Give the backbone structure.
Amino acid sequence: MSRKGILIVVSGFSGSGKGTLMKELISRYGENYALSISATTREPREGEVHGKEYFFITKEEFEKKIAKEELIEYARYVENYYGTPRDYVEEQLDAGRDVILEIEIQGALKVKKAFPETLLLFVTPPTSSELKKRLIGRGTETMEIIESRMRRAVEEAEGMDKYDYLVVNDDLGHCVEEMHAIIRAEHCRSFRNAAFMKEIKDDLSRSLKGE
């Protein structure tokens, strides 16, 4: 039976390790997944390639996409737009690949509202002290920024119960396997198999009539 891919949104606190988790998931099971590529109006940074890290487009092109409803979700940060192109996502889903969007809570809930069958996963470290330790361990941010990220985490924690599954990122290897298992099981949910169930029902009815 051919299957359509599932749209998956992964969110988590800054420092939860969701980016590393996504890379490892793709590394192990790349044939099953596609990471969504966002469109943006910002200039490419050194080494970034159009169609790989982002789709780099003009502000005018982006606003046309908004008007034509060609974006699943979008937001504006520091004078630049960022958004998820609908056509790329639908192309991957139709090919049977599960598409992962790594976005924050507000965006995740917008996607869920527009596409109720979306699977929402929230990634968290096992404790707040571990979260702070990971943020400090990056060695790229001041303590002031780290404290602001911790305050942001307190706000984001209020939305965790709106997600379908909580994934505790303690051991990376175990966490990757757990996430993969959740997504595999999700394909078996009855509401995702309406066409197959109808086919079975029709087949049973025909066999009862001796057809």
About this structure: The beta strands are 7-12, 33-35, 38-40, 54-56, 71-77, 80-85, 98-102, 119-124, 165-168. The chain has one domain: 7-205. The two ends are 22 Å apart (CA to CA). The domain at 7-205 is CATH 3.40.50.300 (Rossmann fold).
